[in-house]
């Protein structure tokens, strides 16, 4: 007769199984933490060391005979630790996935690219696309489109390519049957589902290609030490941020990690600057977005003479979703006003009206405040101040205790409404650097309100349409931007400071004085 194993044997086996699960969860979570890099290494190493010691203590306790109550407490403690570590690993992995989706520049990751057709078209295989027209995006997702085109050309013969700047237009082409199919990457497919009504229910995926992403190209910047700039573009309408349309909100963020300071530069949408897409002929800044955000970046770099290292583009949907997701924001509204709703409806029942003073705004109210500019004397300058107040309020909410509890929800929606060319690895490095120091940040505002308006022709509109009311920058405004960047980059010290009363800008970088640039002091009929 086989000898029965003692009860202690089974108790120890159960304890070791608990510890095995704890060990596996810990290894997976800390692998994510070390490879992602968003947490400071010293934090991760310290946490790993503490958990290793706890594991060894728990292992030794499992080898000893303990009272029943102690065994129960030990197991509950192991379960609690496993849940805490697993939850941390889950959120780190989710953060990594979110950044990769937003940045479109995750080195080593894989992008899925879909070939989609109109539902009910009768096309369900690539062979049926022979002799058909296929749409490709030539805007911010052009690299993925080019990859898919290579694959399709190798598999399907005699197709006609049709290029568009954004997926909203390609989707419209599909419905109008000017294309029979188009290719779209996975992140933009998800974005289109969130931003285009009926998108998911009206298309079918007939092929999926997988593309391995190369290391992201871009400026060689240590974002934990070096000053860098970000151009923030807000679209003029609702919909996906990949649309190539007018840029209603234009901000340059000059980020100085050493000083923990951000200069937030507001640029008027009607700013009169040379448009790169029109051979640097003068145009409204807002119109540069019609030829893609890269065109806006090139145009701004040329005008101010400073590099724009990264960009981020958001749609009006994002402001509503972000503000509502974080539970609203507290803003000091500058004036009493009424504004159209998010659908641009001026019906009495749709108007959004706010009173002057400090108040709590939801997403739609924040959007209305960021849009309003029609009140006389408030105008575009007032709207730019409002946009800066809203951005500051969002930042303040996010770093509050209440805001931190909403981060998980925010990560769920961010990839659908924000695109950026800042690599995920750079974002992680920046966050890690700030967590490592934990110093407060300051934000300064630079606004453009010393120029003048004038009626002039713009490059992107036919002269037969007449003149447009444009904003001419003052030279002082441009100097302010250039000097802010130069001071942040050089970490200006008072002992190296010189001053010339006869020429205030003698020892500062020169501004662009190309013959086609028109400053406020050159206006013939200023308004």
From TrEMBL:
Keyword Oxidoreductase attached: no
UniProtKB keywords: Membrane, Transmembrane, Transmembrane helix
A Pfam family that the UniProt record links to this protein: LytR_cpsA_psr
Annotated Cell envelope-related transcriptional attenuator domain residues: 246-399
Keyword Secreted: no
TM annotation in the entry: 16-39, 45-63, 75-92
NCBIfam families: lytR_cpsA_psr
Family: Belongs to the LytR/CpsA/Psr (LCP) family.
Protein name: Transcriptional regulator
